Amino acid sequence: MGEMLIALNPWIKAFHVIAVIAWMAGILYLPRLFVYHADTPAGSGRSEMLKVMERRLLRAIMNPAMIAVFLLGGLLLATPGTFGDGGFWWHAKLALVLLLAVIHMAMGAWRKAFEEDRNTRPAKFFRMVNEVPTVLMIAIVILVVVRPF
Fold first, then answer.
1. How much of the chain is in helix, strand and coil states, percent to nearest 5?
2. Are the C-beta atoms of 58 and 26 separated by less than 8 Å?
3. Is the distance from CB of 115 to CB of 51 less than 8 angstroms?
4. CA–CA separation, 21 vs 16, rounded Å?
5. Residue 108 exposure: Cα atoms within 13 Å on the Cβ side
6. Would you tell me which of 5, 42, 94, 121 could form a disulfide with 125, CB atoms 3.0–4.6 Å apart?
7. For the segment 13-27, what is each residue's pLDDT rounded down to a tens digit?
8. Distance between CA 49 and CA 78 in Å, rounded?
9. Using CA atoms, how far apart are residues 114 and 81, in angstroms rounded to an integer?
10. Neighbours of 19 (CB within 10 A)
11. What is the largest CA-CA distance in the chain?
């Protein structure tokens, strides 16, 4: 199994990066939709359109991409020699990716609240939430590329 993973490593990495890009696109865009939705009257045509956009983004792009990130990341973890001499950087990266998954789940709950017309959070809240994945993404990329520890 290890030899096969080593041979497929470039493909696994490529698809992992593709999945990360798709997941990040959604995780950065969904809070922006929430900003617009928070300022839209419940039951309006615009509100109903945003509900469809949010549901499709989460279910058709974000959820499959997150699952692919974790599956492909698991394959990378299982590949002998992927992390060279090891180091603590990948533990920190994994912790930050798990935090992104928690944020993803929170966004799912917020989307459900919008869908049921029971959101109570203001647009300003979602503007602030929108910054968190960006900061995490920057930290994750630095950990992977620079491997500071």
1. 80, 0, 20
2. yes
3. yes
4. 9
5. 13
6. 121
7. 999 999 999 999 999
8. 43
9. 45
10. 20
11. 57
